């Protein structure tokens, strides 16, 4: 009877350990997502880069050719720096900064975070110059500031972007919160990052639309936007390319199948929650290494 009870107790203990072992699993070093899952990843990344290159080409052609080029003299040419730099900074640099954690899937996470922050710093520099250009132009031309929906959405978005940058830098790069607090902050940081990408896209679309109406008012021999002259096509396709880019980036960074690969041999390569998993497994009584550590 005692032997039978011991066998039953042993079986119950193993059964209790097994669900816990299955609750949290870490992919072994060198593993990756199944090929079927990743088959669309690189084509989508390529599509996003084709879209954003098209965005930059159209933005440069529109502002440089149809809007008359660039200057720093308070004229309309100075205004042209505003859409170009905002698109360069807040669409391209920021969108690709988000993608860094997906593209560099196996690289050291500190290096990727540094690239992520540097690209966002470039976005802020572009944004500051772009805002300076538009305010200088408005003030010199006697045009009121902050009266359009574009400006009402755009300026708060840029301020929120700067706050997100500061919060992310302090929380995840330097001086860096402890692991528990980073794990608590990370979901909000990710959510706000994707939300900002959406707000940036909305701001860009409203700004492009505003400028197209102002540039093609019709009458007095001027082109009319509703008649769809060539400039209208350039501006409209620019907006569509921004939407396509933002949608692809948003999908890539929110799809769970495309998360960074987990390498238990290097905690800095792991998502924050995986470091906790590693500690959990080291306490698993079924793990022989746990007994060795206890010794």
Automatic annotation (TrEMBL):
What residue intervals traverse the membrane? Answer: 41-64, 84-104, 116-135, 155-174, 186-208, 233-253
Task: Locate the compositionally biased regions of type Basic and acidic residues.
Answer: 17-26
Q: Which GO terms describe its cellular component?
A: membrane
Domain of life according to the entry: Eukaryota
What keywords is this UniProt entry annotated with? Electron transport, Heme, Iron, Membrane, Metal-binding, Transmembrane, Transmembrane helix, Transport
**What segment(s) does the record annotate as region Disordered?**
1-34, 262-295
Q: Where in the cell is it found?
A: Membrane
Per UniProt, the ranges with Polar residues bias are 1-14
Q: What is this protein called?
A: Cytochrome b561-like isoform X2
């Amino acid at each position: 009877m005692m032997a039978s009870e011991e066998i039953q107790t042993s079986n119950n203990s193993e059964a209790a350990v097994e669900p816990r072992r299955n609750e949290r699993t870490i992919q072994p070093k060198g593993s990756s997502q199944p090929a079927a899952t990743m088959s669309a990843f690189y084509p989508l990344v390529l599509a996003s880069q084709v879209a954003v290159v098209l965005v930059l080409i159209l933005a440069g052609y529109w502002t440089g050719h149809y809007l008359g080029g660039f200057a720093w003299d308070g004229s309309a040419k100075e205004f042209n720096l505003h859409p170009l730099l905002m698109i360069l900074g807040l669409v391209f640099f920021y969108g690709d900064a988000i993608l860094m954690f997906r593209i560099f899937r196996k690289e050291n996470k500190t290096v990727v975070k540094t690239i992520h922050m540097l690209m966002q710093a470039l976005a802020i520099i572009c944004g500051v110059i772009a805002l300076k250009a538009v305010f200088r132009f408005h003030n010199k031309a006697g045009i009121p500031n902050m009266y359009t929906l574009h400006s009402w959405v755009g300026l708060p978005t840029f301020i929120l972007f700067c706050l997100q940058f500061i919060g992310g830098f302090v929380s995840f790069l330097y001086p860096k919160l402890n692991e528990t607090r980073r794990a608590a902050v990370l979901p909000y940081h990710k959510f706000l990052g994707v939300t900002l990408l959406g707000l940036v896209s909305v701001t860009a679309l409203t700004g492009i639309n505003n400028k197209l109406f102002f540039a093609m008012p019709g009458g007095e021999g001027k082109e009319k936007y509703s008649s769809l002259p060539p400039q209208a096509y350039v501006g409209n396709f620019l907006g569509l390319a921004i939407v396509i880019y933002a949608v692809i980036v948003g999908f890539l960074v929110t799809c769970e199948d495309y998360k960074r690969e987990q390498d238990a041999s290097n905690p800095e390569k792991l998502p924050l929650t995986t470091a906790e998993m590693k500690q959990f497994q080291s306490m698993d009584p079924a793990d022989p290494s746990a007994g060795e550590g206890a010794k």
